[in-house]
TrEMBL record:
Belongs to the NOS family. Bacterial NOS oxygenase subfamily. The lineage of its organism: Bacteria, Bacillati, Bacillota, Bacilli, Bacillales. Residues 61-68 form the Nitric oxide synthase (NOS) domain. Its EC number is 1.14.14.47. It comes from the Bacteria. This is Nitric oxide synthase oxygenase. This protein is similar to the oxygenase domain of eukaryotic nitric oxide synthases but lacks the reductase domain which, in eukaryotes, is responsible for transfer of electrons to the ferric heme during nitric oxide synthesis.
């Protein structure tokens, strides 16, 4: 099974990169021997890098895949000590943020015995009873059980919660604030929006998925791109089970009604996108609007067609949450078949939420 998966991956990668049949056979023999001797095998740095890029290319939910070849891979497979772990995390934050000109970046820890990261993203805001991000209540409680106490604002950056492979106890690490870039949100035409004091962080670094390449599962692989504006403005800010900001924004905009037929709710959603987009730009932070992202995705589809590869996708995710019908993705279907290499949600059992609940 492992050998089959390894063979499939090596064949695909080496063909795409125009390696000779000879080189391919040599590498496959090497891998076969390694598996026979040790039960597993280790990717070369090049295989790890290309495999991670292929995983992005195969990510059915992602509209940003045009840029799959630019993914930067930090090889952290040999990290063991606490110091080296924190170093790798800080390097990721710094390199990916890049002063606002965000780079797509992934850090890959050990395949056999990786450190565990409990956070859903490296940077996220705590969720309390009536404040903060409700999506992060569980991880906030875990942090509190470990002795952390947030300031209690709507935007307290959570500490990193992790466990090293040879230790039994979880550790916590407050991210250095100079490595956490944030953007205060304001609106060009509604100056009072600023008074709400809403903000968002620049870099979404997913830290709760597995990466599978050629039969090898990497269980700790924080990775990021940059935001598409509606992820923040429509989902994080407007969803009733997230920041639920419609009413507060209506006050700031001095709208006198939220009646369905006034269309003010819709107006607020659009204006929030305008606010988030231009606030990010004003602060020199990379972000893409939904119409441009959809155009880029069309470009990706053309590239893939030229390479004789089929694009798979998950329609409900590829359709943006603002003005979905304005983009081509809405108007046709996608096969949601999962190709490998790819990123996978962790299975329920291994998804260690708060162990105290
Ligand atoms: N939707 C998630 C969030 O709002 C981020 C998912 C990844 N997004 C991205 N543009 N790479 O935090």
């Amino acid at each position: 099974m492992l050998l089959e998966k390894a063979t499939e991956f090596i064949n695909t990668m080496y063909d795409e990169l125009d390696y000779s049949q000879e080189e391919k056979t040599k590498r496959l023999n090497e891998i076969e021997n390694e598996i026979n001797e040790s039960g597993t095998y280790r990717h070369t740095t090049e295989e790890l890098t290309y495999g991670a890029r292929m995983a992005w290319r195969n990510s059915n939910r992602c509209i940003g895949r045009l840029f799959w070849e630019t993914l930067i891979v930090q090889d952290a497979r040999d990290v063991e000590s606490n110091e080296a772990f924190i170093d790798a995390i800080n390097t990721h934050l710094k390199e990916a943020t890049n002063g606002g000109k965000i780079k797509s970046y992934i850090t890959v820890f050990s395949q056999d015995n990786p450190p565990t990261i409990y956070n859903n993203q490296l940077i996220r805001y705590a969720g309390y009873e009536d404040k903060g991000d409700p999506a992060e209540k569980e991880i906030t409680q875990l942090a509190e059980h470990l002795g952390w106490q947030g300031e209690g604002t709507d935007f307290d950056v959570l500490p990193l919660i992790y466990k090293l492979p040879h230790e039994n106890q979880m550790r916590m690490y407050e991210l250095p604030s100079e490595l956490v870039l944030e953007v205060p949100i304001e609106h060009r035409n509604y100056p009072r929006l600023k008074e709400l004091g809403i903000k968002w962080y620049a870099v979404p670094i997913i830290s709760n998925m597995d990466l599978k390449i050629g039969g090898i599962t990497y269980g700790t692989v924080p990775f990021n791109g940059w935001y598409m504006v509606n992820e923040i403005a429509v989902r994080n800010f407007t969803d009733s089970y997230r920041y639920n900001l419609i009413e507060k924004v209506a006050d700031a905009f001095e709208f006198d009604t939220l009646k369905n037929t006034s269309f003010n709710k819709d107006r607020i959603v659009v204006e929030l996108n305008d606010a988030v987009y231009h606030s990010f730009k004003k602060n020199g932070v990379s972000i893409v609007d939904h119409l441009t992202a959809a155009k880029q995705f069309e470009h990706f589809e053309r590239n893939e067609e030229h390479a004789h590869r089929k694009v798979t996708g998950k329609w409900s995710w590829l359709v943006p949450s603002l003005s979905p019908t304005l983009v081509p993705n809405y108007h046709h279907g996608y096969s949601n078949e999962m190709r490998e290499p790819n990123f996978f949600y962790k299975k329920k059992a291994e998804k260690q939420g708060c162990p105290f609940h």
